[in-house]
Amino acid sequence: MREPYNRVFISFGPFTIYWYAVFIVSGILLGYFIASKKAKKEGISEDVISDLLLYGLPVSIISARLYYVFFELDSYIRNPVDILKVWEGGLAIHGGLIGAVATGVIYCRKKNLSFWKVADIVAPSIVIGQIIGRWGNFMNQEAYGGEISREALKGFLLPNFIVNQMYIDGAYRQPTFLYESLWNIGVLIILILLIKRKAFNGQLFLVYIIMYSIGRFWIEGLRTDSLMLTQNLRMAQVLSISLIFSALLVYFYLKKNKEEHYNGNYT
């Protein structure tokens, strides 16, 4: 059996760069480039995207880490120094989104910008970051599902480098990191198709929230390393359901207000 991939991308002197960081940073940089180009087309300064990255990235990383730590508190209380070891994994996407949205709302209010318009611009970039970032989980052998046979994995027509990396703790595991990455490619395609047909500000972002949450709810049910709200409730599934219904309500509210405004009935 082949050994798992080395989590270290490169080491020089006292410095070590992990593959986990490489994938996350790559997703962020590609997303930033695309969002900047989109902002320019929408008549919004590229500085807005730069500022959001400057302020939002550290907030998102901290909130993603704190979210994860909160649900694994017993382990981190025993080893508090491990809280700082983000390169070992443990950045919760939902926690990061909470930090990013909060930063975006505050920033847009201070700059007198439409949060929903800006959110639509960055929505595809968020998905791209998630598509690429999940491969950091692959390198860390995390975000996996229950046991499955090697033959079943090969039946999915997966290349050997994925099949071999899914041998974790003495058994082959479902590559739920891959399921989510592929699902998000589908979400990205939907957003791209909607860009030219967008009917109101906030539509793309809310469709992203709804579609991502549907996929996350399903995939989370396959995982064996979920953050648990209670013994039987997976936090990501509870939050996904909440986000689906909340986003639907906001979607129809914004759509209705847009139509009323168009018909001259908006007050």
Provide an overview of this structure.
The protein is mostly helical and 267 residues long. The chain is 67% helix and 5% strand. It has a two-stranded antiparallel ribbon. A two-stranded antiparallel ribbon has the order 3-4. The longest helix has 28 residues. The chain is globular and about 55 Å long. The termini are far apart.
Tell me the Rg in angstroms.
20 Å
Unreliable stretches covering 5 or more consecutive residues: none
The helix content is 55-70%
Distance between the termini: 68 Å
Helix-strand sequence: EEHHHHHHHEEHHH
The count of DSSP E runs of length 2 or more, i.e. the number of strands, is 4
> Biggest sheet: strands side by side, in what order?
1-2
Give the strand content: under 5%
Average pLDDT, to the nearest integer? 92
Structural class: mainly alpha
Number of H/I helices: 10
The major beta sheet can be summarized as: 2 strands, antiparallel
General shape = globular
Write the layout of secondary structure elements.
Blueprint: E1 8-12, E2 15-18, H1 19-41, H2 46-71, H3 73-78, H4 93-111, H5 115-140, H6 150-155, H7 160-165, E3 167-168, E4 171-172, H8 176-195, H9 203-220, H10 235-262
Antiparallel strand pairs: 1-2, 3-4
Helix pairs in contact: 1-2, 1-5, 2-4, 4-5, 5-8, 5-9, 8-9, 9-10
